[in-house]
Amino acid sequence: DAKTTQPNSMESNEEEPVHLPCNHSTISGTDYIHWYRQLPSQGPEYVIHGLTSNVNNRMASLAIAEDRKSSTLILHRATLRDAAVYYCILHYGGATNKLIFGTGTLLAVQP
Amino acid sequence: EPEVTQTPSHQVTQMGQEVILRCVPISNHLYFYWYRQILGQKVEFLVSFYNNEISEKSEIFDDQFSVERPDGSNFTLKIRSTKLEDSAMYFCASSGQGILKKLFFGSGTQLSVL
């Protein structure tokens, strides 16, 4: 799987939007961009995924650059419960059925 | 929302002992996985299982490890002779059909090898 680069940590204030960046300059045309998060003492949790177009769901939005070499996970209004490690993962489901986790971004949310 | 259930939540064992970690995946899922996370480190892939056989495994998943789906609901990870370095949080996951393979993870079993 192609490599992703994320900042080690970010900080946000409660009730404010958070933009979590991910660079994936070696992405291939068939790679989907997945985001998972891991709350303290829990297993990873699916957040969102996309291929080319921006995506929205009840948890977050995913903005994908036109060249697909980067993406941004957007939490519209951060809550204390959003404090977690966020993982950006590229995955081509046809070749393999495993996800490879990197080190992710540790998001701290201040009240 | 359906969830993946893991038991026990904590397991303490002596080095050299066998342990079995248990998981109940989401009922209509077809793909099953084990991951582990050593304290302070990345979530690491161990093995994936589909159609009653291992489909992929990592270098970590050596002969000391085995997986089984003994019935229609359980999925187990066995470590035959535990080592100190096997101490970690072990996560089970499952996913349904389809290329996107959205994984659902359990809350994990914390294994401590003394």
Work out the helicity level of chain B.
under 10%
Query: Helical element count of chain A?
Result: 0
**From the helix content, strand content and strand pairing of chain A, which structural class follows?**
mainly beta
Count every helix of chain B, treating DSSP H or I runs of 4 or more residues as helices.
Answer: 0
Which residues of chain A form runs of ≥5 with pLDDT under 50? none
Proportion in helices of chain A = under 10%
Can you tell me the overall shape of chain A? globular
Give the averaged pLDDT of chain A, no decimals.
92
Distance between the termini of chain B: 37 Å
Structural class of chain B: mainly beta
Features:
heterodimer, A: 111 residues, mainly beta, five-stranded mixed β-sheet, four-stranded antiparallel β-sheet, B: 114 residues, seven-stranded mixed β-sheet, globular
List the helices and strands and how they pair.
The complex is a heterodimer of chains A (111) and B (114).
Chain A: E1 9-13, E2 18-23, E3 32-38, E4 45-50, E5 55-56, E6 61-64, E7 70-75, E8 84-91, E9 105-110
Parallel strand pairs in A: 1-9
Antiparallel strand pairs in A: 2-7, 3-4, 3-8, 5-6, 6-7, 8-9
Chain B: E1 5-7, E2 10-13, E3 19-24, E4 31-37, E5 43-50, E6 53-57, E7 65-68, E8 75-79, E9 88-95, E10 104-105, E11 109-113
Parallel strand pairs in B: 2-11
Antiparallel strand pairs in B: 1-3, 3-8, 4-5, 4-9, 5-6, 7-8, 9-10, 9-11
